[in-house]
Structure formats: structure tokens, C-alpha cells
């Protein structure tokens, strides 16, 4: 690659010559043999005349033709330094990370660092065993860094550094861009795959031309001014790589400074993450799914932060500091279309939409017979004035009967939103979370029991349900004739039955399919808390989690999360115990504190099917 420096003619003012880095890089990067005169995709334009450049420039529609260095750091050459510029340009970036941070800057750094590879041969940079560099830049770039590359037509391209090495004696970064660009490859250079990505997203540029993605630099971390104060006593929160299984008991997790620390309206996210990952593995596929070509270039970083900085520390050490959560919130704020995730009050479904649906691209938890898919199910029902304490089972069956849809398959996780809107309006003042959810009659194609005689049902009549339980509409052929003899307006539809198993099901009880309640999110005056079952056993105890249970300090203080064991909760959610508690306390103020939050403030219930989760 020829590096010719054009210098302006000396003037009477003896001003220094300015170097145009575009002329050094050439029409594309990495350097390629020059084509005679004509270059693909070039469009001649009128050059902008500025005092810094004395020559004309041809701008191209090709991205590679417009990559330029940061204009704030244009090198100024004199006659003595121009011959050494190329080496200095290569050494502009002070630290490179290829598994570890190594210093490749000048100022005494040995030349052997580059290992003098053959021309055009990409090679990874070996770890430098010398002394640590005294220079530490804010823009340190390493593998996994979120970066931007500027062009001379005021465009910015964003992506993730996937590879760092030496190409043509120059420290080079392989960047996977956020979007496809015509003319770019898929991470292969000179027949060697340096990193995998979708076609049209692999960009190889000098490392010095990469800058930290400015979109992620303007959100400050939580205030931690007390770090140097003698009273600062927050637990440590190290990054935990690898695989950490969920907890199977409460153990010593109860107490203050346990769970996820809240900060700046983060309770919606804290409570949701605590419910989803602390004591259950039903959502663990989100933590370990390998990236695919359709994923965002930031997918691996979002997944890593969620797994290694939040879920794993929570399971191993029982505590996640607020700045770890803020890192995830910042990524969600920048990469999803849900605004305000770093500062505003939000609801759990908005967080699930941004993280699970958009960034992690998880398979929807619910698949409906209508062809629709969803991550959670909102209950839409008409209020029955004669009912004062409906159960989730009753509301769910009523909602499905009204909508006329079924589930296409048994879900591994079933997230149900209560019939309330915002923090103020509630259709029912109290709702009883059902500890076991019978979904047999909600699944399309699942064998059902006749509501009259108990044999295998062959027909279903929605009119016979009449707002009651769904199982009342399932009838065998004999009972259908008897029931509809006096109901001429009722129309029944046949049920889909696998004839292979029909003879067996005719002679034995039809099996029921249940899902288990394992978490309830509650909201009161815009603040979310969680009740979570501390294990998979049927009689496992429950705990209460509040990410902002207490606070230390005022303006520069911090929140203290707390976990409390609730021994009575299993009795509260049972049908007999819940209704007895409801009858004994007609006003919310008469209920025990935690019972009031559970029955009167329930916002979202989480159910799981461990048998189904094993296969997904």
C-alpha cells in the first residue's frame, strides 16, 4: 500500500502543512489493488473547499470509500515528521483487547509486538508480556466493544468489534455492523473466517478509526458517591461467568441487602428479573441461546450482561448492585423501541417486550389457535357484580370463553396480567392467585372429559358455558343429545380427538394438565414488588422481595433491597384459606400487610409447567 502525503505549498506565513488522512487510507480498506481509472460505485462530486485541504476528493457511494479518522485529531506534519507518520497512525490506539488488554502504543513499546506478519495475512495480536502501559484512554477498544465508524459524508455506522488483529502491518478491527451494507462480507478475509456474521455486515477498518459508540456514553451510572465514605457498606457484586443453576431453597438469602438493588424507578425490572430467574430455570433458555444471523450485533453483549452481571451473581451471591442493572437498562434504552427504560416508571410487560421480544428474540411463550403469538396474556372480562373474590382460574376461563380462542400447545411458562389498567383502575378490588392452574380445557386438541358423565368428550358448546367454567361446555355424544333437546338454539362443534388413543381414553379417566404458580408481581402507588416461590417442591415456602425496601442516606444515598420469608402465603392462596381471609377482613386495612399486597395489588401472575420446560 502506497502512502503518499500531499503537502500544501509553503506560504509566506510558514504555516504547517495539514495531512489529509483520506489520502493515506485510499479508496477502500483493507487496501486492494488499484483498478485503472474507473472504480466501482464512484460518483464524482464537487469537493468542499476548506483551508485544511488543498486537493480535490472524489466521494463514493461505497461505505469503504468514506471511512475517515476522527476530525478532532488531525495530525499536523512538518518536514521532519512526515516520513514517520505511517507508524504513528498505526500506533494511535493505545490498548487492544484480544482476550486481555495489551498496549500497542508507541513511546517505548517494542516493535516485536506486531510479529511482522506477511503482507495481507490477518493474524491475531499475541499477548504482550511487557510492562503495563502508563497511557489509558477512555476510548479503549477491545473485542466485544460497541463502536462507531465515521465517514466523510456525515454518516455513522455502528456495530460490535468481533476480531482484532494485524492486516498489512496495521492494527485492524473486524466490526459486525448493525445493518447490512452493500459490498461488505460475512467475516471471511483472504479465504479465512475471522469471525461469523450475516452477509453484508463485516467491516474491516484500522483500529484507530473506531470510536466508542456515543449512544452508550451519555447515561451516567447510579450515584455511588459514598464509595470512599467510611459508612459505605454495600456488598460486592463481581461478574460471574459460566453456568449457575437456580436456587432450590431460600437458605440464607433472606435479609437486607439481598436480591437486586433498586435505583431510579427500576422496581418494575428488579421484581420481574427476581421472579424469572432466582428460583426457577423455566426462562434459562434466554441466557444460553447461541446468536443467529437474524440477531442484533448487540445480542451477545445484552445476553452476557443479563447472564453474567445479573442472573449469575444473584444465584451465587444473592445480591446484584444497581450499577449492574443500569448497564442492562442502558442497553435496552438504546437498542429497543421502548423509551425511558433508564429513568421513567415502566410496567413489566414493557420491559419484557424490549428485552425478551426485541433484543433476545425469544420464541413467544404463548401460541394461540388464532395464529397469534404472545409473551403474556392480558385478561379481558366483564365484571360480575355478584363475585367479590374471583380466582385467576375463573378469570382465565371466562376470558378464553369470551374471546373464542384456545392455546395451540401447553406453554412452558404462562404469564397472566390481571384485569386492571395502570396503577389506579382495578376491575376487582381483590383477586385470588390460583396455586394450580388447570389448562386442560384451554388447549386445542387436548382430550377432555364430558361435563355430565365423565367419559371422553366429543363435542363442545360455547353457549352451554354461559360465562361459567369451560369444562361445562364439553359433552359426549349421548349427553349432547339430552342437553340440547331443550336448547334448540345451541350449536355444538366437534372436538379434535386422536383416534389412536380414543379407545384407551374411553375406558380410563381423562388426564388433566396443570400449571403451577411460582411468582406474583404486585403494584401499589407505582411501586412493584414480588412474591416468589423458593423452590420447585409443592410445599416450598414463599418469599417477599422489595428492591427498595429501605434507604441509606438522602441525595447521595442508596436503596437497600430486602427478602422476607412468608410462611403463611401458601395458606393465603389456597381456595379455602383465601376466601376465609377475605371474609374476615372486608376492608383492605384489616388484612395483614403482605396479604393485602398479594390479594389487592396483584398485577401479574407467573405459572410454569416443569415437564414442558424440560423439552424447550
UniProtKB/TrEMBL annotation:
Source organism, top-level taxon: Eukaryota
Predominant location: cytoplasm
GO MF annotation list: cysteine-type deubiquitinase activity; metal ion binding
UniProt-annotated location(s): Cytoplasm, Cytoskeleton, Microtubule organizing center, Centrosome; Cytoplasm, Perinuclear region
Enzyme Commission (EC) number: 3.4.19.12
InterPro entries noted in UniProt: CAP-Gly_dom_sf, CAP-Gly_domain, Papain-like_cys_pep_sf, Peptidase_C19_UCH, USP
Gene3D superfamilies linked to this entry: CAP Gly-rich-like domain, Cysteine proteinases
Region (Disordered): 1-53
Pfam family, one: CAP_GLY
Biological process annotations from GO: protein deubiquitination; proteolysis
Enzymatic reactions: Thiol-dependent hydrolysis of ester, thioester, amide, peptide and isopeptide bonds formed by the C-terminal Gly of ubiquitin (a 76-residue protein attached to proteins as an intracellular targeting signal)
GO cellular component: centrosome; perinuclear region of cytoplasm
Keywords: Cytoplasm, Hydrolase, Metal-binding, Phosphoprotein, Protease, Thiol protease, Ubl conjugation pathway, Zinc
Residue spans of biased composition, Basic and acidic residues class: 1-10
Keyword Transmembrane attributed: no
Coiled-coil regions, chain positions: none
Domain USP: 258-610
Family of this protein: Belongs to the peptidase C19 family.
PANTHER family tied to this protein: 40S RIBOSOMAL PROTEIN S3A (PTHR11830)
Name listed for the protein in its UniProt record: ubiquitinyl hydrolase 1
Organism: Pieris brassicae (White butterfly)
Taxonomic lineage from the root: Eukaryota, Metazoa, Ecdysozoa, Arthropoda, Hexapoda
